[in-house]
Structures are given as structure tokens and as C-alpha cells.
Amino acid sequence: MKKPINDADNFDNCACPSCSLFSDCNRGNADRTFCARTPSSCVMDDKKHCICPQCSVYTDNGLVGAYFCIVEIKE
Fold first, then answer.
1. In total, how many domains does the chain have?
2. Is residue 16 domain-resident?
3. Smallest Cα–Cα separation from 2: which of 49, 65, 54, 44?
4. I want to staple 68 with a disulfide (CB 3.0 to 4.6 A). Which of 4, 35, 47, 54 is the partner?
5. In terms of residue numbers, what domain contains 44?
């Protein structure tokens, strides 16, 4: 699986800010588009529901899996 491009379009279409895992720490760091970058440096609660598969960046790029804010995509 290939990482999506880390660009403004993907950043703008990213659903991360709507995710239950997204925290004040992420907002303060202007974090998002984890599938195109690296996992979050913030503490993330993997017991919360992940919405990666509902994101247009995910579907447009044919991604599989989830919790990209915690688990990095290996190319």
C-alpha cells in the first residue's frame, strides 16, 4: 500500500478532525492527514472508534486498515 500524497488537497479533505480519536493536542499541533504523514505525537486512545474508512482521502487512495494516527503506513 502506498501513502497518499502529503498535499493541500488531501489536508483539506481529511476527516481526522471529525474523528473521536482527535484531541485538543492534535488541534494544537494542527495535526491531520496521518495516512500521508507519520503517526501522531499526541497520545491517542485506540479504544475509540476510528473513521479512516469513511474518509475521502482513504477511499480516493485505495487504503486498507485504519488508525493511521497510531499506526504508520509501510510502503
1. 1
2. yes
3. 65
4. 35
5. 8-60
Q: What is the model's pLDDT at position 13?
A: 96
Burial of 20 (0-12, 13-18, 19+ CB in 10 A): exposed
How far, in Å, CA of 73 to CA of 37, rounded?
9
Residue 74 lies in a domain: no
For residues 13 and 52, the answer to whether their CB atoms sit within 8 Å is no
Question: Could you tell me which of 8, 19, 74, 12 has the C-alpha nearest to residue 42?
Answer: 19
Q: Is residue 70 part of a domain?
A: no
Q: Which residues contact 8 (CB under 8 A, 6 or more apart)?
A: none
pLDDT class of 32 with cuts at 50, 70, 90: very high
Query: Do 52 and 20 contact (CB within 8 A), yes or no?
Result: no
Residue with cell 499506526: 71
pTM of the model: 0.88
In a domain, 30, yes or no: yes
